[in-house]
Design a protein that fits this description.
The protein is mainly α and 56 residues long. It is built from 2 helices and no strands. The chain is rod-shaped and about 55 Å long.
Length: 56
């Protein structure tokens, strides 16, 4: 998921540089949403691992 967030961020930068403002805005929004999803899932995974480790 982080890979897709980075890809969309790069697409947003390139399209912004080329002057396609609406495409740039849309891809930037998609990149932000994917990055937030990645962070939430990463934190849940870390909490799950800490919970499993604390059982032993």
């Amino acid at each position: 998921m982080l890979k897709w967030a980075i890809i969309f961020a790069i697409i947003s930068l390139v399209t912004g540089w080329l002057g396609f403002g609406s495409v740039s805005g849309a891809t930037a929004t998609i990149a932000k949403v994917l990055f937030v999803c990645f962070v939430i899932l990463f934190l849940l995974a870390v909490l799950a691992v800490i919970g499993v480790i604390s059982l032993f």
